[in-house]
């Protein structure tokens, strides 16, 4: 089987990119090394798309705002059910950094005085509401796979080698050739890159341990984030359609040999903050559980700055790498990668003079967004 592009990956990012490249009529397929596509993000953490209201940084907020209509179109086209549009951002202190950003970028929001549902008896200083899409991430993955099933090639990649067409690889018992490889492998990015001949670059990643408290019972179907208290509460949907709220608190620590288990002190802080800010939800979600999951990101992150300018790295002339990132930015990463491919095709059709060539090659980048990997 011969293709112009082969995507290597199993998650939401790979499937979103495949779906968009298919729509453009590109000769592409996706090789899925694992059998359970998208399990890392969609089975262990909530998945929903927002317009950037979590962030005070204009660059991050602007990127998510710009791609929100594309998410809406995809969700509508695939027939993914929107389970709720109840979404809030609350603050224990001053909200001006965030509201100034929202105002500057025309992000829609409404201040609310409601104290029902998720906000029952809340003790937050200010709360704002946003109509965002909340849906089942597993349903999104299933619908993407169904819509693009004829372009999926499942099987463990046994070998990648150079050939006159570009690259030859074996996925299970299938022989596939491709002119260009696109790596969307999340936590396995470095391992995949190391198996591609002629690629010296690697993406250095680090793994963070995320401790998740689950709340069941008479809980509202919606989400709330308290950025200045590092609280995030969002729904996940079970097979019978009921809502489970997943709650994380604080900055996730970098993984070490000592922090793979539940941190009781961290759990107590989670519960204390929940009772102090959202007492009604604390009372309603009395049926609780807890687990840890892993988030993989670039090692350049976690040093007081957040990578936000580039999602794609050109690691070789014919190998592009989509850096591990939050699923909410999958559309942004796809935009950037498609722009690179379009740029390459234009230059191939209209070669520049030799002295101008350096101006036509995109710079390499070393920044990435957080990714999530199944624990």
UniProtKB/TrEMBL annotation:
Keyword Nuclease tagged: no
Domain of life: Bacteria
Keywords: Coiled coil, Oxidoreductase
Coiled-coil regions listed: 257-284
InterPro entries membership: FAD-dep_OxRdtase (IPR006076), FAD/NAD-bd_sf (IPR036188)
MF terms (GO), sorted A to Z: oxidoreductase activity
FAD dependent oxidoreductase domain span: 5-292
The name this protein goes by in its record: FAD-binding oxidoreductase
Organism encoding this protein: Trinickia violacea
């Amino acid at each position: 089987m011969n293709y112009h592009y082969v995507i290597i990956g199993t998650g939401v990012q790979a499937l979103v990119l495949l779906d968009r490249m298919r729509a453009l009529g590109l000769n592409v397929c996706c090789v899925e090394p694992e059998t359970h596509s998208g399990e890392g993000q969609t089975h262990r953490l909530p998945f929903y798309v927002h317009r950037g209201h979590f962030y005070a940084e204009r660059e991050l907020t602007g990127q998510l705002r710009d791609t929100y209509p594309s998410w809406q179109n995809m969700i509508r086209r695939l027939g993914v059910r929107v389970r709720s549009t109840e979404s809030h951002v609350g603050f224990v202190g001053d909200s001006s950094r965030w509201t100034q950003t929202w105002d500057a970028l025309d992000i829609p929001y409404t201040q609310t005085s409601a104290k029902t549902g998720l906000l029952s008896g809340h003790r937050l200083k200010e709360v704002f509401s946003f109509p965002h899409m909340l849906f089942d991430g597993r349903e999104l993955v299933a619908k993407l796979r169904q819509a693009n099933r004829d372009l999926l090639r499942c099987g463990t990649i046994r070998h990648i080698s150079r050939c006159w067409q570009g690259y030859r690889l074996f996925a299970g018992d299938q022989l596939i050739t491709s002119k260009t490889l696109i790596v969307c492998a999340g936590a396995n990015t470095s391992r995949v890159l190391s198996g591609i001949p002629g690629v010296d670059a690697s993406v250095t990643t680090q793994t963070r341990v995320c401790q998740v408290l689950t709340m069941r019972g008479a809980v509202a179907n919606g989400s709330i984030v308290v950025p200045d208290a590092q609280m995030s509460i969002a729904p996940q949907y079970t097979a019978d359609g009921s809502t489970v709220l997943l709650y994380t608190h604080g900055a996730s620590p970098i993984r070490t040999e000592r922090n793979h288990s539940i941190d009781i002190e961290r759990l107590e802080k989670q519960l204390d903050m929940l009772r102090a800010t959202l007492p009604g939800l604390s009372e309603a979600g009395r049926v609780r559980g807890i687990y840890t999951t892993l988030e993989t990101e670039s090692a350049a992150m976690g040093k007081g700055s957040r990578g936000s300018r580039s999602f794609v790295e050109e690691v070789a002339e014919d190998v592009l790498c989509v850096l591990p990132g939050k699923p909410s930015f999958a559309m942004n990463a796809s935009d950037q990668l498609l722009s690179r491919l379009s740029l390459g095709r234009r230059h191939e059709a209209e070669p520049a003079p030799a002295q101008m060539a350096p101006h036509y090659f995109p710079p390499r980048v070393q920044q990435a967004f957080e990714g999530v990997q199944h624990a």
